[in-house]
Amino acid sequence: MLNYVQGIMLTALEIICCKIFFESFGKKRYESSTRNCIIILSTIISCYLVVLALYNKFIIKQILIIVMIALFMSVYVKVKLIKAIVLSLLFQGLLLSVDYLTLWVNLSLFKSLADINESHLIGASMITVVSKKYCYFFNSCVNQKEKSEIKHRML
């Protein structure tokens, strides 16, 4: 049960980072916060269900998630579908890089993956959350830089 809750929370954090990433490249399509929340919540649920359903099929899972994120984010942000696919591909690449870096840090701190699951699950989970927060921070910095450049151009 704890694994499901943890998975949903990590997926939600990743989709929030994705939302910020896409907002750096376009404006929100709708001003209604209810509609935007429904789009983001739908993205979280559908991505989590794909991860559960295609647990052992990495390539198919990644392709499907890239396409789903592109579809949902092209509805959420004013971008063309092709641009949304490219941005989704870039974002997934960023997430995979951070995930592999996190795995490397966990394996260098702890003896093995089995050791992490048995004794150090909370510590390893904290490292994972910190890495996702790094993604969030990176996306926020990109978003702030983009907004400041737009304000500078307008002046």
Task: Describe the protein.
This protein is 85% helix and 0% strand. The chain is mainly α. The model has no long low-confidence stretch (mean pLDDT 80).
Summarize, please.
The protein is built from 6 helices and no strands. It is mostly helical and 155 residues long.
How would you spell out the order of helices and strands? Answer: HHHHHH
From the N-terminal CA to the C-terminal CA, the straight-line distance is 53 Å
- The assigned structural class equals mainly alpha
- In the predicted model, the low-confidence regions spanning at least 5 consecutive residues are none
Count of DSSP helices? 6
Alpha-carbon Rg, integer: 17 Å
**Tally of strands:** 0
* Biggest sheet features: none
Helix content: over 70%
Q: Output mean pLDDT.
A: 80
Name the overall outline: globular
Write out key terms for the chains shown.
about 160 residues, mainly alpha, 6 helices, about 0% strand
What does the secondary structure layout of this molecule look like, with pairings?
Blueprint: H1 2-23, H2 33-53, H3 58-76, H4 81-109, H5 113-118, H6 121-154
